[in-house]
Amino acid sequence: MYIGIDIGGTNIGIGMVDNENNLIYKDSIPTRCESGYREIIKNIIDLIYKVINCTGIHKTEVKGIGIGIPGIVEPKSGIIIDSVNLKWKNVKIMDEIENEFGVPVYVGNDATVAGVAELEVGAMKGYNSGVLITLGTGVGGGIIINGNTYDGSNGIGSEIGHMIVGENYYNCNCGRNGCLETFCSSTAIINYATKLIEEGCNSLMLEYVEDDIKRIDGRIIFKAAENGDNVACEVVDRMVKYLSIGIVNVISIIDPEVFVIGGGLSASGDFLLSKIRQQVLANTYFKEVETGRVVLSNIGNDGGIIGAANLCKHHG
Amino acid sequence: MYIGIDIGGTNIGIGMVDNENNLIYKDSIPTRCESGYREIIKNIIDLIYKVINCTGIHKTEVKGIGIGIPGIVEPKSGIIIDSVNLKWKNVKIMDEIENEFGVPVYVGNDATVAGVAELEVGAMKGYNSGVLITLGTGVGGGIIINGNTYDGSNGIGSEIGHMIVGENYYNCNCGRNGCLETFCSSTAIINYATKLIEEGCNSLMLEYVEDDIKRIDGRIIFKAAENGDNVACEVVDRMVKYLSIGIVNVISIIDPEVFVIGGGLSASGDFLLSKIRQQVLANTYFKEVETGRVVLSNIGNDGGIIGAANLCKHHG
Hints:
Two copies of one chain form a homodimer. By secondary structure, chain A is an alpha/beta fold. Helices cover 39% and strands 21% of the residues of chain A. The first copy, chain A, is built from ten helices and 13 strands. In chain A, the strands form three sheets. A five-stranded mixed sheet of chain A has the order 3-2-1-4-8. In chain A, strands 11-10-9-12-13 form a five-stranded mixed sheet, sandwiched between helices. Chain A has a three-stranded antiparallel sheet with strand order 5-6-7, with no helix packed on it. In chain A, a hairpin with a 5-residue loop joins strand 2 and strand 3. In chain A, helix 7 crosses helix 8. The radius of gyration of chain A is 20 Å and the shape is globular. The two termini of chain A are 20 Å apart. The model of chain A has no long low-confidence stretch (mean pLDDT 95). At the A-B interface, strand 10 and helix 8 of A face strand 10 and helix 8 of B.
């Protein structure tokens, strides 16, 4: 029996997960970032007690607690070095919860945790190595090597969104130019679609949003592209071009067995997937060697909790 | 006691290496690629017998044989999928030598083998993870993760030279544009220096080569740059710019404890190293997190043999 906790900028999800990965109980509370980390950790401790009480499971049956957070985690100490979303710097959540409950606590980056969920119950099941690429507001990465999570020696590995893959017309939030997430995140494609429309391109997208350009989002872009809109197709093709460069770069370095595409934009499903596969194939340079299969994520909304619970088993 | 074999396009080096990594005997023969792989494997077998005989070491004391080759190796089978230098495709060297000598045989890419040498007797000693980047005719990579070699699931990991890091004015041999080795190999910097000079830039380099532009090589470029030649400085700075993008990309993915710069161009020593360190620091995006130290290779000419012998211990 394991407890998984998924700390997001808006909500904290928690669940009791059994050894067969059944989520036998779940709950959530608002994160309330403004209250500060001490208060939030206190809330989390209360929430863990609530889950233990409500499930009737004895404290000694809980073999570990895993926590996913949106930020950078120091691998050995579990210290949260930086979380922009939570506004946390150098927060020692691991020690506090370990002291309270006397069980091993593991803390991981949320994309890494999602990768663990893919490995346990999703599209990476049965593989020994894999890379999850989440296409959302940013681009995240979860790396599995030899069946375990891989975050690097300082906790900043698997930050695939900050791999430089070309030159872009605007800089990344990190201050540099050409990061993968400035080409492939939903923010990036909205930015590019808006730019093209503002430059005078006519598009179905405008019709969908009743000329309110601010309402353009990833779903609108993919809907228009699927309906053959030239501007939307250009936006999607540019995204896929750079994503496939990113994927082939990851092949050139860690050559995993499988790539899993997750995050909000993966909802565009086979339309996106077939384009990515085509471009990855076009971009691979050792044509005679098989490369990692590209598939869509298939963990559900509870992936964050299940992945966090499984950090206990797969902590690298 | 281990035997290490370093197969290059010109020569095959072999050595008997003891458990303390002393090279107690070494020998070499010309590769003679034109004779075909069957003949070469026969020559290697003869050479192994010669080493065993000359050292007086009993066959049963040899615990393993490691072989480094310039090419792609299928991780499990040791099949050499492709070696451009040797003109080999799908060559099963591992089985043949294993059958002959009855000891475990490991085959690895030569840059990976050089990485193992750095780990055992060089600049990676004492580290658990590291990435060797060899700057030679091409750009190669040797990755160590958790103390073992890492070549990926299909043997095409650690091909760092083919990571795309920008846009270049000419294409890579692999057919794509923007590969690291088209910016950072000796071939790349010679190409760029020649281009600038042919475009009319005046340079000390021309003086060094007595106006014979074809004689410009990496050594000439670095010598001119160290003496303040503007053109050579531009060539070196461009190389360092993209190399540091490559290094920070590798940090974004596998975040190793150390980077080792090897290959012919590393002979330019501290002049190159200080420029790389400066640019890597400028390019890292999580300023509060330590990143892998960048150092120069310090294995000698026997690194290929010692690394190959140690494949037996560190095969990932």
